[in-house]
Amino acid sequence: MLDVRRLRLLSDLHRLGTIAAVADARSYTASAVSQQLTALERETGVALLERTGRRVTLTAAGQVLVRHTETVLAALEEAGASLAAVRSGPAGPVRIGAFPSVMRTLLPPVLVTLGHDHPALELTVTELDPALVPAALRERRLDVGLTSDYDIAPAEPDPSLDSVPLLRETVYLAEPASTATGSVAGVASTPWILATPGTLCHEAILRVCRDAEFIPRARHHADDFATVLALVAAGQGVSLVPELAATTPPAGVRLTALPVSRRTSIGFRRGAAAHPAVAAVIAALRQRRATGASADPGDPGRSADPARGPMHRQG
Q1: Which InterPro entries match (predicted)?
Q2: Does residue 163 or residue 314 have the better pLDDT?
Q3: What is the rounded average pLDDT for all residues in the chain?
Q4: Which pLDDT tens digit goes with each residue over 120-162?
Q5: Confidence class for position 312, pLDDT limits 50, 70, 90
Q6: What does the alpha-carbon distance between residue 231 and residue 236 come to, in Å, rounded to a whole number?
Q7: Range of the domain at 179
Q8: For the chain, how long is the longest CA-to-CA vector?
Q9: CA-CA-CA-CA torsion sign (204, 208, 209, 215)
Q10: In whole angstroms, how far apart are CA 85 and each of 31, 81, 109, 117?
Q11: What is the DSSP string of 177-210?
């Protein structure tokens, strides 16, 4: 019988690339990870790893076992979900990860609804960058996580996770109102406020500018959209912001709708969709979205029509 914990480590190694990275993700020592993988090789009776100096790669047998591991882990998750459904309705701890604009708008009323409809749930929310949510789900630090990407910069699918779509938002060009041009091409020579390199928000800006045939000149880097809009209002540059983050822009900011969308999905481990607690959170989020309700009476989740042209929002 193969040890599931060791199979997880092999899958982690395939995904992360080094034993040191696996050790860091699992809060183990590198030596402990190596020992567990060696024990897994003894269990299988075949070489799973190729060691060249300090580098470790998976053999053909290791690759085969990783593919089966994803199926095994999903089956175990599904079995746990089925048992939970037999035992009771939605109950127990549920750890939710969400990014700031969802935390401010969509999530608070959902938490109220869940607390009212399912008082046995123990809800815990953590603010987390969407890029960090998949790892938190895989490592069982979250049960449900809100992830996002852009239609022009789609995220790579994760074979260990499933998701359902939640909302689609228009992305806006944010400019100082006093110098607004109303188009991406019009700000080719203007300083930009960019997200941290390596994030999807940063990549989305680069691709929008590339389509307009220029490379943005960075003046500032900021990941919080409230900060981004404050810098735009102060005349420090231009940027892109999604609709949920642009419901109440500061005075002096002009927003122009672009034919670009940010997509938000509800993520969870493969096999966990039928778990009563996970299903309750998914249903509450989707119901809130389906009613068009949000924390703002203007429903910031509703996409503006880019065909309407520039959208002015000041004060």
Answers
A1: LysR_HTH_N, LysR_subst-bd, WH-like_DNA-bd_sf, WH_DNA-bd_sf
A2: 163
A3: 87
A4: 999 999 998 888 899 899 888 999 999 999 999 998 888 889 9
A5: very low
A6: 5
A7: 169-262+302-311
A8: 71
A9: positive
A10: 39, 6, 25, 17
A11: GGG--SSSGGGTTSEEEEPPTTSHHHHHHHHHHH
CA contacts within 13 A on the Cβ side of 242: 26
Strand partners, 278: none
- Yes or no: say if 207 and 215 are a contact pair by the CB < 8 Å rule: no
Number of domains in the chain: 3
Same domain, 204 and 306: yes
* pLDDT tens readout for residues 246-298: 888 999 999 999 999 999 999 999 999 989 999 999 999 999 988 764 433 23
In the structure encoding, which two tokens stand for residue 36, read together? 């567990």
Radius of gyration of the chain (CA): 23
The residue-averaged pLDDT of 212-235 equals 96
> What amino acid is encoded at 19 in this protein?
I
What are phi and psi for residue 90, nearest 5 degrees?
-60, 115
Q: Write down which residue in 52, 67, 84 finishes a domain.
A: 84
Contact 99, 130 (CB under 8 A): yes
pTM, two decimals, is 0.73
Q: Are residues 306 and 230 in the same domain?
A: yes
The single residue listed with the structure tokens 């943005």 is: 216
